[in-house]
Amino acid sequence: MSRVTPRPFALVAAAFLAASSALAQSAPRADAATRPRDGGASSAQAPSGPTATLRFRYSQGARLRYAVRSSQTAQGLASNINQTLELETQRVQPDGSAEQRARTVSFSMESGALPQQQRQLLQQAMLNASFQFRVDPRGHVVSRQPVQGLQGSLVELGDQVWQTVEGSLPALPPTPVAVGASWTDSKQVRFALGAARLVMRVELTYTLRELRSGAQGPTAIIGVAMNLTVAQGVGAPNVAVSGSGRATGEVHFLVDRGVLQRATSNLSLDVNFTSRGTRQQTMRMTATSDLSLQN
């Protein structure tokens, strides 16, 4: 019986976690809808006080810059990524949705998982890629165009980067909410890189923890809890992948500006590798991320 060698897949996993660093704040896929929590479900506390309508507000020509810091570990291999992401609103539609373009302005990576040559290739790919998409006032990405500026195998990598862009938008509630109110969302994340293929089911619960007064008006402090399940997975020929994990995070949303101010997350995922029907090894992967508005 062949022995599973998880190290190569650990490199893929680290790249996957980097691309999914903001998953705890993920916007739904274009074919998914944010839905309010069922009336009988419990929340962190009974909703009370004034309500707030949480909506993104787009302005044509506006450019928002975010600093993103993330770290990942898998099978003892660690990676740290620092990047600056720019979101430009190119057009605002009559229904309040916006056509946006996202690009990476700066990117650096320290990693024991990837050789320097591969890190340089990743950096160049990140700086060349751009992503265009349409997003509605609740943060739903309703359509997107193929990644631009990449060719060959880098297209797959670019698709993973896209999930970071999409994941930077919280799924806002469909109705006004008071402190203590919760709402839920679900989505699937598809990861493909080389021989590795993963389909992850993600269940999210958002809770409005606080409406905090400040110089820019009220800030909605939103807690995020996420459960992940690997629905389908292939790490290499004859190697199946399964697993589950959890993540927690917090979103700061500027209510009057309609802008995401900050998003943080902490993720832990256990992945099981099975070769020809026999379980061989369990790998724990962890990731943290911090996304903050710079302007």
Structure characterization notes:
By secondary structure, the protein is mainly beta. Helix content is 14%, strand content 54%. Residues 1-44 have low confidence and may be disordered. The chain has one domain (6-33, 43-293): Lipovitellin-phosvitin complex, beta-sheet shell regions (Roll), CATH 2.30.230. The chain is globular and about 55 Å long. It has helices spanning 6-19, 116-128, 154-167, and strands spanning 35-36, 48-52, 63-74, 77-92, 98-111, 130-135, 141-144, 177-179, 182-193, 196-212, 219-236, 239-254, 259-275, 278-293.
Whole-number mean pLDDT: 78
The CATH C-level class name? Mainly Beta
- Number of DSSP E strands: 14
Helix content percent band? 10-25%
Largest sheet: 12 strands, antiparallel
Uncertain residue segments: 1-44
Number of helices: 3
Order of helices and strands: HEEEEEHEEHEEEEEEE
Beta-strand percentage range: over 45%
What CATH architecture label applies? Roll
Strand-pairing-aware structural class: mainly beta
CA-based shape? globular
What Rg, in angstroms, do the CA atoms define? Answer: 19 Å
Distance between the termini: 57 Å
Could you give the topology of this structure?
Layout: H1 6-19, E1 35-36, E2 48-52, E3 63-74, E4 77-92, E5 98-111, H2 116-128, E6 130-135, E7 141-144, H3 154-167, E8 177-179, E9 182-193, E10 196-212, E11 219-236, E12 239-254, E13 259-275, E14 278-293
Antiparallel strand pairs: 1-9, 2-8, 3-4, 3-14, 4-5, 5-6, 6-7, 9-10, 10-11, 11-12, 12-13, 13-14
